[in-house]
Amino acid sequence: MYGRPSWRHPRVLLTLALVFLSGALAGVLAGRFTTLVAKPQSMRFWREGGKELSLQKLKKELDLTPQQTGEMEAILDDFVQYYDALQSQMDGVRANCKDRVVAMLTREQQQKFERLLGGLQPKQIK
Fold first, then answer.
1. H, E, C per residue of 90-109
2. What is the pTM of this model?
3. 113 domain residue, yes or no
4. Is residue 15 in some structural domain?
5. What is the rounded distance in angstroms from the CA atom of residue 90 to the CA atom of residue 88?
6. pLDDT along the chain (126 residues), means of 10
7. How far apart are CA 52 and CA 73, in angstroms?
8. Taking the CB of residue 33, how many other CB atoms lie within 10 A of it?
9. Cα 26 to Cα 102: distance, rounded to the nearest angstrom
């Protein structure tokens, strides 16, 4: 009994804390790198014919007048344009961040980083 340290022993507690913190750090880093390469596709539906389907459903469900339908279409079109502008900015921020990370790494680290990012990229929806 004297040969095994209790779970309350400082070294055991330190080891548990380090394991927990390492896991948390790995999760945070994976999340960060995923957001660097992820490209949301939520507006794709709107551009590929979903606009008419959405407007018809809203018109029917909300019993919109023709004037309201026109206003709704204009509002949603504005939203899509705003979203596209923000997406373009986010693409630039992602690219800048990736460029800065790659610039600080050695050639070997850059290759590993690119492999890591390749494994984190979402699959393309067809």
1. HHHHHHHHHHHHHHHCCHHH
2. 0.46
3. yes
4. no
5. 5
6. 68 81 72 52 62 83 92 87 87 89 91 81 47
7. 9
8. 19
9. 19
